[in-house]
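EI: anyone free to look at a 260-residue chain?
SC: sure, send it
EI:
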Amino acid sequence: MPQDTNARSRAGSAPKPPARPDVTPAELDTALNALKSYDYGSSRAALTPIDNAVVACLGDARARRTLEKRLAGLLKTDIPPVAKEYLCRKLILIGSADSVPALRALLADKNVSHLARSALEHNPRPEAVRALRESLPKLSGPQRTGVVASLGMRRDSASISALAALLNDSDPQTAGAAAEALGNIGTVKASKALLEFQPRAPDAIFPIVADARLACAERLASAGNRARALVIYEALASPLQPEHVRRAARRGLSNLTGKK
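SC: here you go
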């Protein structure tokens, strides 16, 4: 049988992955030094060697760790906030336990806390989520609310007690964020905290708590805990709940029981 030359040609012409950019030590040093004066209006081109170094180190553990330490070290210096934001974005890509202390120190800094928190949230190391958790009592305002959201995104079950306490916070944004985080965590313990709180939830966050309980039911059902999910769905189908929650709860019950 004749070979399919067209198929062979197509296979042979498959695009090769792009080569990793080469960055000389001198180029990297110059770019890192540029961060000392990097601010609004500065040329972004001056930082290109750092971008290239991040790409180049992704397949090289030693180079990645060396670069991470250098970037984290600069976060501890008196460089402009815009430069620190840039470094945090790079550490989202290559961060490990080595950069956690420098990022944690920025969580209370209103200028860069959002990106420092994001870098910790995306960092898979347990040290990163522990830094978020342990910073919670030391923060306030938007910085605390942001960390609450990150703990929810990390589904950090060790934070449930602290988040449950924040449900009673006088700031509706903080209390609402705590409810959403508990919904994202979605464990039995998280669902119990929301169940106990909802009857006394202020009107401003009552719908948020209901939505969070619904999220818990969905996560529990996905995890195979049908019995607990059914209990939550049945409670949320009550006339006391917002209409959209009742509809979702009835849909959840139908999916689990097969009853229309």
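EI: The chain has two domains: 22-139, 159-260.
SC: 👍
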